Amino acid sequence: MVTAIVFIKADVARIPEVAEQVAAIEGVSEVYSVTGGLDLIALVRVARHDDLATVIPEHVNRVPGVLSTETHIAFRAYSSHDLEAAFSLGETDGV
């Protein structure tokens, strides 16, 4: 599995629509709106490095409202925490 972190600058008026369209692309596992110099960060997970050439330039970059992208390929994962559990901290089960 190859993981890439894609920094996305988007048309500010279209950030929600851009995020939804990027999230719907096969290979994109998560999209986050963020503060700072970027508008969105997308996590792309694909089987092969060559697949990144399809997902990012042929799909992510062509979403209307995407102004630019910067891609960082992950070499190694140092944690294997459960993201679902991390984002459900405020939820209660059966209470």
TrEMBL record:
It comes from the Bacteria. GO terms for biological process: response to amino acid. GO terms for molecular function: sequence-specific DNA binding. One of its GO terms (cellular component) is cytosol. Residues 7-76 form the Transcription regulator AsnC/Lrp ligand binding domain. SUPFAM superfamilies: Dimeric alpha+beta barrel (SSF54909). This is AsnC-like helix-turn-helix protein.
